[in-house]
């Protein structure tokens, strides 16, 4: 069974945002944590997008894995 184009695009986007920009998001989160000690607002502005990104990727991978297991049954 061949995956449709929408599924291919989803996996391609997931790959780009997880593998290609992982270090960028980690540096932004680390910079936000360091900045939090000096200026809370700027630290929060840096940390929130990185935390949302990692949460979104984790949920997408979890749902994808759940659907894949459901198809196998």
How would you portray this structure in words?
- This protein has 3 helices and no strands.
- It has 73 residues and is an all-alpha fold.
- The radius of gyration is 16 Å and the shape is elongated.
- 0% of the residues are buried.
- The model has no long low-confidence stretch (mean pLDDT 77).
The number of helices is 3
User: How much helicity do the residues have?
Assistant: over 70%
**Beta-strand percent range:** under 5%
Oligomer: single chain
- CA radius of gyration is 16 Å
Q: Outline, from the CA principal axes?
A: elongated
Number of DSSP-assigned strands: 0
Distance between the termini: 16 Å
Q: Could you name the ranges where pLDDT drops below 50 across 5 or more consecutive residues?
A: none
Mean pLDDT: 77
Structural class: mainly alpha
Sketch the major β-sheet. Answer: none
What sequence of helices (H) and strands (E) makes up the elements?
HHH
Task: Give the arrangement of secondary structure elements.
Layout: H1 5-20, H2 22-36, H3 40-72
Helix pairs in contact: 2-3
